[in-house]
Amino acid sequence: GAVVSQHPSWVICKSGTSVKIECRSLDFQATTMFWYRQFPKQSLMLMATSNEGSKATYEQGVEKDKFLINHASLTLSTLTVTSAHPEDSSFYICSAITGLGEKLFFGSGTQLSVL
Amino acid sequence: AQSVTQLDSHVSVSEGTPVLLRCNYSSSYSPSLFWYVQHPNKGLQLLLKYTSAATLVKGINGFEAEFKKSETSFHLTKPSAHMSDAAEYFCVVSESGQLTFGSGTQLTVLP
Fold first, then answer.
1. Which of A18, A66, A97, B97 has its CA 20 to 30 Å from the CA of residue B83?
2. Which residues of chain A neighbour B44 with C-beta distances below 8 Å?
3. Cα separation of A80 and A47, whole Å?
């Protein structure tokens, strides 16, 4: 079956540094990918919708200059947390839709801890 | 380690009839459990969540789910299906900050 690979699975960084998270669709082309964020025991929050070759669409309240999303190819989307701060510590997960939009697959998530 | 099994990849019901989407989980500790819905080409929308409070959880759009620890189940139900309920549904378990998704159940609602 289709697989979405998300890397890294966890990262610890210093405050003020930037962190890049990759989301790859391994055996299908994903025209649309989604990025979510989850705080402990809370539900997933959709951050942005990433479409290949165009600018990402951010949800209300999500800082686009802080959470940079690049969807440069049909198999790769990246989320860069710029100038990370402790409040950015969270679990980030991506998902990808198959070409015809018939199925959604999830990455395994990235646990970010900012010191 | 935690895991989630959605027992049916596809469910078809007639409009106005009850909906049952099954989910079983395994978890070492006390998990949080969620049901999400995905409409075509859209992101996930939270239907409901269980976080160790009442075992019967009521969500949006008339959905509810019951946490049964003895059966390790968290099935999603709705008394009467509506055409707009046609979508894919995901059961998710969260433990110690780690999420595990079920493989999804596609719900078709027939007129």
1. A97
2. 34, 36, 44, 46, 95, 104
3. 12
Assign residue B44 a region: left if phi > 0, alpha if psi is -120 to 50, beta otherwise?
Answer: beta
Q: What is the DSSP letter of A107?
A: -
Question: pLDDT tens digits, residue range A2-42?
Answer: 589 999 999 999 999 999 999 999 988 888 899 999 877 67
Pick from B41, B49, B101: which is nearest to A106 by CB? B101
Residue among A34, A43, A93 minimizing CB distance to B34? A43
The answer to whether B101 contacts chain A (CB < 8 Å) is yes
- The alpha carbon of residue B79 is apart from the nearest alpha carbon of chain A, in Å, by 24
Find, in chain B, the residue whose alpha carbon is nearest to that of A41: B32
Q: Do A103 and B97 touch (CB under 8 A)?
A: no
> Distance between CA atoms of A43 and B35, rounded to whole angstroms?
10
* DSSP one-letter string for chain B: --EEEES-SEEEEETTS-EEE-EEEE-SS--EEEEEEE-TT--EEEEEEESSS-SEEE-GGG-EEEEETTTTEEEEEESS--GGG-EEEEEEEEETTEEEE---EEEEEE-
Nearest CA in chain B to A98: B41
